[in-house]
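$ ./design --mode recover --in tokens.txt
reading tokens...
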């Protein structure tokens, strides 16, 4: 029997058909368990993935575009396909710590990210935001990052609502390549 044909029945029997399909996303366990967190945490640039990403090869870093003060990178654990982060190169935690030039370039990169995502994937809308601090939901609070999350009509279907699963139809490296090619020089 396949996973789609099996279910667990009250602790007594397995293998009875329940008619459900199973969508396995084992890569999410790394995020959920925190096993990919550096030993010293994210507080110092040496363990911060946003400080390390610009120095890695594109297929490893998922960096889409680089500016003078900020860069755009795909979210390793996206809410939706094409979920980008705009990050300053400088390791700062709070929006108020950005200097004026970083603030301007972060805004311009966010606008460009929206244009690129619309061009490549015809997004109907976006959620933009920064979670400032762990209590506000920042997974990596020590390094500021602006979320650019594309949205489509009906993208909140039964999968995330009932199944608590997000379907991502494209590999992150393929998405990175499409966005990097469409990003204006």
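writing sequence...
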């Amino acid at each position: 029997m396949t996973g789609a044909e099996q279910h667990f029945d009250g602790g007594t029997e397995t293998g009875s058909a329940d008619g459900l399909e199973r969508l396995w996303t084992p890569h999410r366990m790394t995020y959920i368990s925190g096993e990919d967190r550096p030993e010293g945490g994210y507080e110092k640039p040496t363990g911060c993935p946003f400080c390390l990403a610009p120095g890695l090869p594109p297929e490893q870093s998922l960096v889409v575009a680089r500016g003078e003060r900020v860069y755009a990178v795909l979210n390793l654990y996206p809410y939706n396909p094409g979920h980008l982060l705009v990050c300053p190169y400088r390791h700062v935690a709070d929006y108020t710590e950005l200097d004026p030039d970083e603030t301007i370039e972060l805004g311009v990169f966010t606008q460009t990210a929206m244009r690129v995502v619309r061009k490549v994937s015809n997004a109907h809308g976006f959620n933009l935001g920064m979670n400032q601090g762990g209590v506000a939901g920042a997974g990596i609070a020590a390094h500021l990052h602006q979320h650019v999350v594309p949205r489509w009509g009906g993208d909140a279907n039964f999968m995330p609502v009932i199944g608590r699963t997000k379907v991502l139809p494209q590999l992150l490296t393929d998405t990175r390549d499409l966005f990097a090619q469409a990003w204006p020089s």
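exit 0
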